[in-house]
Specification:
Shape: extended
Helix content: 55-70%
Organism: Neogobius melanostomus (round goby)
Radius of gyration: 37 Å
Structural class: mainly alpha
Pfam family, one: SPG48
Strand content: under 5%
Protein name: Adaptor related protein complex 5 subunit zeta 1
InterPro entries: AP5Z1 (IPR028222), AP5Z1_ARM (IPR055450), TPR_AP5Z1_C (IPR056856), TPR_AP5Z1_N (IPR056857)
Distance between the termini: 61 Å
Number of strands: 2
């Protein structure tokens, strides 16, 4: 909420009248004509920004004021740059006066001005002249253009490349490829020393050689991992070029495809020949610009990988080595994706890097791009990648689950390759117990990733175990917390809160329970026998924030799981899943509201499964009846119990499954009748609540449906309903505390009783045939709807 003063200013800005606004435009235009713009200009610009941003519609500025503001974006004052660009963003470019991009001086551009130009460019044709001018400014020599011009122009051009790559023509691509080669490979190898003092001699001011990160003198060409007291301009361009090289390589090939067609035809024939010439020739200056850039990029990345083997003297330099390694491997991957013949030259270098780093998990962020390289090119290089996938999918989540940055990059790696991983890495789906550790540790920030990833983990072979694992996710979260505390807290030191769960985690008698939760791969069993014991040991973790947050994500994942498995599973597997739902409905960690949410999800998908496959009710009739015949479920699992009873009454019918016999109907009727009689003939257990009226009415409806299919049962239902009406005449009853609820129950009983007096009508109403529940009247020629539809069609359609 805004303060009272702020709301007053916003109201004044919205209520300003057009004549007053035009006067303000005129005053501001005259003010901006001056050379020295002080506080008055800043205040006026701030007021103009408030006026423009406070209204819902876009105002149009006078052309002269618009031009003055655009010129102000290149002002030496950064405050004026920010204010003028912010004002112009609230307006659209003038319809009758397009910005002349060819008159813009690249040396005067800055971040704010370039961002404004790119955001307000109306089309690609508008940006193309601007790109041409940027390329020409980069093509100039340092003596012809200010040194800071190129360092500002290259990032701007990279932004254009990112958002509108089609603005670059084939000529632009060739020119920039040549410049990138020069900046990457031929930067100076001397460092600039700062001028000395009065007593400094000329010898001390001589340029010295650049150094490596370990302090030794560099003996090769300059790269981003070289250090010195100060960089020259071409060395800064070397650093900038390396930072944009990957984006350039991934984009300019698609640009060439858009603008030319002959080049792609030649590449398919001569790519391997050119690569062989690049590898054997002492000079690559005769190669086309693109091929030459590819060759120099390969050499540059090789040099960066070699430099990373040096021991950095500073911690910041060690982190720089890792970041540059990530970029170098990604660039090599992009090179091989563009020209597959390079794989045979690049793979030995990447394989050697993997062998050097694989034993050190501190390089995990570097190993992920290497894994991407193996995934893209391992098959072509005929390399066994089993060790790589064991490292990535086994050790990373198991040992680095608490590294949030790595978790995001790891999940991004999986999401980017979600289509290829199940095909190229068949063991990927076996690692879901490990992959879910990241979610169990940091649920709020990673749940969106797992919403996309979970369907790829669902297979018919792992569905049952995955369902158990999702239900035990809060237990896994608590176990990971205990694992961390077990490392941090010495065994001899008593915990301040007296954590019994930590003692249990360290107890060898319970070690097997926790090791099952911490398993790395699937296949060791769907679940464990002593779940109730595990839940007792972890009872105190029910209010831990990490566990509570994890429990809140499980219902979302369960919906995704069931929506996915229903597309690939057969009825046998679906029957197993129904059995798991019934068994696990009482075997859940006692996190607040967790059990109710799980029951709600189970109920929804139980109805969905049975509606798609009604024969599941007959297949699992024994387990469903056992669940429905347990009176305690009426009070403890109200949501799920209600839906199980409804499913039995709805689909236990000969019309749904020819295997349904009178014996099935009678046994189900007797089980439900016993429960209904028990809960309506006695008060609830001490400390308990009365049964929900919804449960009672569902039981009565299910009994009436079953009786309508076996008429011998109708007298028993009618007798119960008549007794119910008689007992309620005296007022309140012990099993229903609310009078309105009792009236609703009795009313439903009277309706069912009236239906059962005429069995034929009862069966038609309570178990309607398919043509009633799923009508197709628009296709039935015996009714008037098709004739009416055809008549309307003829009237509305032209002849």
């Amino acid at each position: 909420m805004f303060s009272h003063g702020s709301e007053s200013l916003i109201k004044q800005a919205r209520d300003i009248q057009e004549p007053e606004l035009q006067k303000f435009y005129s005053r501001l235009t005259k003010l901006l004509q001056g050379k020295d713009l002080g506080l008055e200009a800043v205040d006026s610009l701030q007021r103009l920004h408030l006026i423009l941003s406070a209204t819902k519609f876009t105002r149009k500025l006078p052309p002269e004021l618009h031009t003055r503001l655009f010129a102000l974006t290149s002002s030496p004052s950064e405050q004026l740059q920010i204010l003028s660009s912010a004002v112009l963003r609230e307006t659209l470019p003038l319809c009758d006066q397009e910005v002349n991009y060819t008159q813009i001086t690249p040396s005067l551009l800055n971040t704010h001005a370039s961002g404004l130009l790119l955001s307000q460019a109306s089309s690609t044709t508008t940006l193309s002249p601007f790109c041409a001018q940027l390329v020409r400014s980069l093509e100039n020599r340092h003596s012809e253009a200010p040194s800071h011009s190129q360092t500002h122009t290259l990032p701007i051009l990279n932004s254009v490349l990112t958002h509108s790559p089609e603005c670059l023509t084939e000529e632009h691509v060739s020119v920039l490829s040549k410049k990138l080669v020069d900046w990457l490979r031929y930067a100076s190898i001397t460092q600039v020393t700062s001028p000395g003092g009065f007593f400094s001699g000329s010898r001390s001011r001589q340029p010295g050689p650049i150094a490596e990160l370990d302090g030794t003198v560099s003996g090769d060409f300059f790269t981003v991992l070289c250090v010195g007291l100060s960089f020259t301009d071409d060395q800064w361009m070397n650093v900038y070029s390396f930072s944009m090289l990957r984006n350039w390589l991934l984009t300019y090939y698609s640009v060439s495809n858009c603008n030319t067609t002959g080049d792609t035809d030649d590449r398919s024939v001569d790519g391997s020949v050119i690569s062989m010439v690049s590898a054997t020739s002492s000079s690559s200056r005769l190669l086309p610009p693109k091929e030459r850039l590819r060759e120099k990029s390969f050499q540059y990345c090789q040099r960066v990988i070699e430099q990373s083997d040096r021991k950095a003297q500073k911690r910041a330099d060690a982190e720089l080595q890792k970041a540059c390694l990530v970029e170098a491997v990604c660039i090599l991957d992009a090179l091989c994706l563009e020209d597959c013949s390079l794989v045979y030259r690049v793979f030995p270098c990447v394989k050697a890097l993997y062998g050097r780093l694989s034993s050190d998990l501190s390089y995990a962020r570097v190993l992920l791009p290497i894994a991407q390289f193996y995934l893209n090119h391992g098959e072509m290089a005929a390399v066994d990648c089993e060790a790589m996938w064991q490292l990535v999918f086994s050790r990373f989540p198991a040992e680095l689950f608490n590294d949030s940055l790595l978790a995001h990059e790891f999940l991004r790696f999986i999401r980017q390759n979600i289509q290829n991983l199940p095909l190229k890495v068949p063991q990927y789906t076996r690692f879901f117990p490990n992959l879910l550790k990241l979610l169990a540790w940091d649920s709020p920030t990673l749940v969106d990733d797992y919403v996309d990833l979970l369907p790829s983990m669902v297979t018919t072979g792992t569905a049952v175990e995955l369902l158990h694992t999702l239900l035990d996710l809060p237990c896994l979260s608590a176990t990971l917390v205990l694992q961390q505390r077990s490392v941090l807290l010495p065994i001899t030191e008593p915990s301040a809160r007296g954590l019994q769960a930590l003692d249990a985690f360290r107890n060898p008698n319970f070690r097997g329970l926790f090791l099952f939760l911490l398993r790395g791969e699937a296949g060791s069993g769907d679940t464990i026998d002593r779940l109730s014991v595990l839940h007792e040991l972890l009872a105190e973790s029910a209010d831990w924030p990490r566990v509570v947050q994890c429990a809140q994500t499980v219902p979302v994942l369960l919906h995704i799981f069931f929506n996915t498995i229903i597309k690939v599973a057969d009825e046998k597997l679906l029957a197993q899943l129904i059995l798991v739902q019934l068994e696990r409905s009482s075997l859940l960690l006692n996190v607040p509201n967790y059990m109710n949410e799980i029951h709600r999800v189970f109920s929804y998908h139980l109805l969905k499964l049975c509606k798609l496959h009604p024969s599941l009710v007959v297949d699992q009739s024994h387990d469903l009846l056992e669940f429905a015949g347990t009176t305690s479920n009426v009070y403890n699992k109200e949501e799920l119990y209600t839906h199980v009873v409804w499913v039995l009454g709805e689909y236990l019918s000969l019309s749904c499954d020819s295997r349904c016999s009178v014996r099935h109907i009678t046994s189900c009727f007797e089980a439900l009748e016993a429960v209904l009689f028990e809960i309506t003939s006695s008060a609830p257990p001490p400390g308990g609540v009365c049964p929900n009226p919804r449960v009672v009415t569902t039981l009565m409806s299910a009994l009436a449906k079953l009786a309508s299919r076996s008429h011998d049962l109708i007298p028993r239902v009618s007798l119960f309903l008549s007794k119910l009406r008689t007992s309620s005449r005296g007022g309140s009853v012990s099993w229903c505390s609310d009078e309105d609820d009792l009236v609703a129950i009795v009313t439903r009983g009277e309706e069912l009783w009236s239906l059962l007096k005429t069995p034929g009508v009862a069966q038609s109403v309570l178990t309607p045939p398919a043509h009633v529940t799923k009508p197709q009247w628009h296709r039935d020629t015996n009714v008037a709807a098709p004739l009416q539809l055809r008549t309307l069609t003829r009237l509305t359609q032209p002849q």
